[in-house]
């Protein structure tokens, strides 16, 4: 399978979510970002279980943009090791997938 | 990999989300729909950055139903180019995956 | 493609979501869980369309842990046939993917 598009998931403190979403769209790293305003996050950090409220970003983009997106988000994200994970898109509305590429100038 | 099931993501104005979810389940285009009531969406449209509140539908269905789901949703969705994207399912609770097919009459 | 990490989606009644998320992290079945507090779920059950409010868990874990996660969640989940589905991760922040494995003792 030759993956062309991905949904990228990123978590971030709730007061920074919209700002990062704007940054991603303005810099054409993603064509569309959905921000789930508040999720409860539970995870291991330095041997303890931590619980936080975070925003969850879901970014629709081209696989061609993934490396640049990861690099740019790491440079502006407040965490040392931010969650940035890409899920492959198997198919969908072909007009929408074309719109992703057009929006990104590809 | 021979993908059999998918999670389909669709965004829609917040006042139309439950109606579309009902339509999808009633017409056996998906076995189960989760509706995230409100997400903030940021995206390019005709050269400008737009910001909207939308509902996000997450539809659990069979890959066999994907083409019909896309066609039907495009015919009832208020947008010209609705987001309809399918993420492949790698595995899970086998009873649940069988239940998806049973619910869809496959 | 040799998939190494997955995002596992699980739905559960809203008053049990955080408890299950804690159980998963404490038992190192997942490195990080995001809980979307409330989604509207519409689905077929025994010939009728049901509507419920549920929490949605999104678990970041290694594919090596998937079978154990499914088995353990089935043993504590209140439903007969719980939704447990795994979406493959294509790539992302390599430090984060390594952190998943480290957190799980892999």
UniProtKB/TrEMBL annotation, chains A, B, C:
Gene3D superfamilies: 3.30.70.120. SUPFAM superfamilies: GlnB-like (SSF54913). GO terms for molecular function: copper ion binding. One of its GO terms (biological process) is response to metal ion. InterPro entries: Ion_tolerance_CutA, N-reg_PII-like_a/b, N-reg_PII/ATP_PRibTrfase_C. It comes from the Bacteria. Belongs to the CutA family. PANTHER family: DIVALENT CATION TOLERANCE CUTA-RELATED, FI09726P. This is Dihydroorotate dehydrogenase. It comes from Thermocrinis ruber.
